[in-house]
Every structure is written in C-alpha cells, then in structure tokens.
Design a protein that fits this description.
The chain has 146 residues and is α+β, with helices and mostly antiparallel strands. The protein is built from three helices and six strands; from the N terminus they run αββββαββα.
Length: 146
C-alpha cells in the first residue's frame, strides 16, 4: 500500500485495529492499494478513508453511499436538506454521478478509539436506516442491492 505521508501511514495503522475490534473481522476489508477500509453494516457499506490534510495531518473521512442510480428531484433534495438539519454528526451529499452519500470527517492526529467509533457508527447507522426510506420513496439501489 502506498501512503502520501508518514502521518497518513501512522493514522491508518493506528485506526485499522480499532475498526477490526469494533466491527469484527468478517465485516471489515482493507484495500490493498489505498488507505481505505470497507465495513459491511446491515444493508449499507461504509468506507473509512485516511486522506492527507495540511502538511502534517490527515482527515479520516467516513462515507457511505446510501442510494445510487436514483433520480434526483426537488422533493428528494428538500428531504435531504431537511434531514441534514436534524443530524448531529455528518450530512447527506450528492456526488458527480448524482449518487446520494452520507459522510462525516474527523481530524486524524487527535482521533482516539471512542471518537472513531462514534464517527463510523453515525455514518453506518444513518446509511443503514435511510437507504430503505429513500429507495422506497424515490427508487435507486442500496449498497446491498449492488
């Protein structure tokens, strides 16, 4: 695996065992080429990506694609924005392919096990809950359907 900085390598190597302990070996897979961990959680899939930030730090970005191949409508966008207002951690977004994701980012250098668990759990539970609701109302595919 290639790292862009020592900070990226250090944080990735620190959090990977925590993720395995928290979510279990069977639910976790690690990319062989990039510092990304995939976690299967209910009907959702969560990706934890350690990305360089500033000179000597990293951001731990936790993202889950909630629904893909969905038609984006004004009603759906309004729904997502209203739901964002209720979130404590993270927010919904739409990528270049109009796929809906939920993500939350934390600073790598100060992250401890409890903060990582809270961040990943927030994304996992939210995605697992909302994928069914969105797919039922607006169509699209959940992670488990792909």
């Amino acid at each position: 695996m290639t790292f862009k900085s020592e900070a990226q390598k250090a944080v990735f190597e620190r959090i990977t065992p925590w993720i395995r302990e928290i979510f279990g070996e069977l639910a976790v897979s690690i990319s062989s080429s990039r510092p990304i961990v995939r976690i299967a959680f209910g009907t959702a899939a969560v990706h934890v990506n350690v990305q360089p930030w500033k000179e000597n730090d990293v951001v731990i970005n936790t993202r889950s694609y909630v629904v893909t191949n969905v038609k984006i409508t004004p009603e759906l966008l309004h729904y997502l924005l209203r739901e964002n207002d209720q979130m404590r951690f993270g927010a919904f977004g739409i990528d270049d392919a109009n796929d809906i994701f939920f993500e939350y980012s934390i600073v790598g250098s100060t992250c401890d096990r409890a903060e990582l668990k809270a961040a990943v759990s927030a994304v996992a539970f939210t995605s697992d809950e909302y994928d069914d609701q969105i797919a039922t109302r607006w169509g699209g595919e959940r992670a488990i359907d792909r």
